[in-house]
Every structure is written in structure tokens, then in C-alpha cells.
Amino acid sequence: MKFAIKKCIAWGDGKTCLEDWQAFANNVSIQAQTLTLPELKQIPAMQRRRLSAFAKLTLHCALTASDTYQHEIPSVFSSRHGDLHKTSKLIADVASKEALSPTHFGLSVHNAVGGLFSIYTGNKAPLSAVSAGEDSFFMGLVDAVAKLHTRKYKRILYVYSDQAVPEHYQNYVQQHADNIAVGLLIEASDSVDNYSIECVGHDNVQSAENLQLQALDFLKFYFSQQQQLSTCSKRYKWQLTRS
Amino acid sequence: MSDLSTEVKQLIIETLDLEDIEATDINDEEALFVDGLGLDSIDALELGVAIKKAYDVKIDGNTDDSKKHFYSVKTLCDFIASTRA
């Protein structure tokens, strides 16, 4: 499947601007890798107060990548864990028989941040939320590109985000504890900015999960001069090619 | 009464993440919702749960009575005080 990436906005631990990501791609990043949060000054304070760190990272990338198209662009939001910090606090409240916070409940569902995006921008275009284990980044991208083609959209917004899981879940996740959000403005392929994604194998590809998040594999590839990214997960073998 | 009022204001600020607002910024008689403090319907639900938890009072859903009780800090305090009497 071919497509063009017109814009790529990413926010991660210690990496918030183009220069940071280029340095990361060239393995020269040396600054502290702690997470700062985007300010999101464009969102009124009364709406912003309810945004978790997860929502802030995701919305920053969604709004910046879609920019002038944000009011009508269709979108796909993907995340492996979603806002697990919020969800696990709710589960703890259930376990201790506390009354649940209606706000936290409403904002912990998997499509909550997509919902916040559409409310804030007044965007009524189709929006979906994807989760696909360690393949969440690539599966979400496949979903976005497939929708672009089958619906003959001019462009689509793809947003992926994940946070390090809460402490008591860390034993169950092999991947490095990174915080990351990526927003891509995707259009049908043209003469420049072209990419093609292929799933070149599946079933028992390897026995363990990759330690690095696919989104970071992608960003390293995108901001470098490499022609091809090949990466495996437990179930799939992915290939992304620049042309 | 004024102790309760400060307590309720503090509860409102903490429950609803009103980061830039202090208890002294909230007027006892002013409307909490829409005008005045500018809270919305999600805040109403959230505040209902918090008041219920903190003061063990019973609140009947979306009735005219509960709307009156939740009009301002003063009406809320009167309501809490009345359930204790």
C-alpha cells in the first residue's frame, strides 16, 4: 500500500522538536530523557484541566499534524495501552468499593482522546480507535492508509500514542518504558514524500516482543536517510519503504 | 458555617482540577454552573459524587431540588447542613 506523509509531529521523552528527532535518528541525542508535557495553550483552560498526560501528548500531535485540516479531516487513533494510568486508578477504586469518578470513567475509554479531538475541533468526520498489541503502531497505520484508499479521502490523520505502563503492570510488558505520541498527515501518494507499507510475513515470526516500540523504529527511520525499515514482532514482519 | 463553606470550596477546586483558582476566588452566593464559576454538566456529576462521598448525603439525580442545592456554595452548604440536623 502506497501513501505520502505530508507532516510528521512527534513528542516523546526529552524529544519534542524536529532537531531532537533528527538527533535521535542519528544516534547523537544526549539530553535528559525525561518527559515534559506540551502546554496546549490553544485549548481553553476550563477544557484543558481535564486532560491527562496521555491526552496532552496525543492531542498535541493530532492538532499540530492536522493543522488547518483539523476541522474536517477523518482520523485513526491507535494505542496499545490507551490511558492505562486512568483506567488502573478506576480499577483500584472498583476494588476498594469507592464511588467511581464519572469524568475519569468517560475519559478512560479507548476512543476518549479521539473524542476530545473531535469536540475541540468540531470535527464530525469518521474517527476510529485501534489497539493491536505490540503491532499497534503499524496496524493503526495500515488502518489509516486502507481508509484513505477505500474511501478515496484526500487526506487522513493518523495518531499513535502510548505511555510507560503503571508500575504494577511493568512485569507483564517487555517493551522499554517510553512515552511517545506521533501524528502523521497522510495523503495519497504523489511524486514526493512517498512510502509503501507491507506486511511480509506472519505467524510465529519471533518468540519475544521487541524491546523498542515500533513508533520509535518508525521515527528513527523517518528522520534519517534510510531507504527501508524492516522490523519483526511476534506475529508479523513489517517493511516500510521510502521511494 | 464558614468553615464548611471553605471546606466545600476546597473540595470543588480539588475534585474539578481548577488549577488556577483559590477558595477565596469563589463567591458564596454566585452560580457554580454556566455563569459565575463556569462549571459544566460533567462537573455536576463529578461534584455530586464527591459531595456524596465527603458528607454521606443522598442526592436525587436530575431533580429540581438537586438543581437548587447545587446552585451555589451557599445553597450547597445549607443542603449539607440540613441533612446533618
Automatic annotation (TrEMBL), chain B:
Residue stretches making up the Carrier domain? 2-85
Tell me which positions the record assigns to the signal sequence.
none
Q: Which UniProt keywords apply?
A: Phosphopantetheine, Phosphoprotein
**Pfam families in the cross-refs:** PP-binding (PF00550)
Q: Which InterPro entries does its entry note?
A: ACP-like_sf, PP-bd_ACP, Ppantetheine_attach_site
Check the record and name the Gene3D superfamilies matching this protein.
Answer: ACP-like
What species is given as this protein's source?
A: Pseudoalteromonas porphyrae
Is the keyword Phosphoprotein assigned to this protein? Answer: yes
Which protein are we looking at?
Answer: Acyl carrier protein
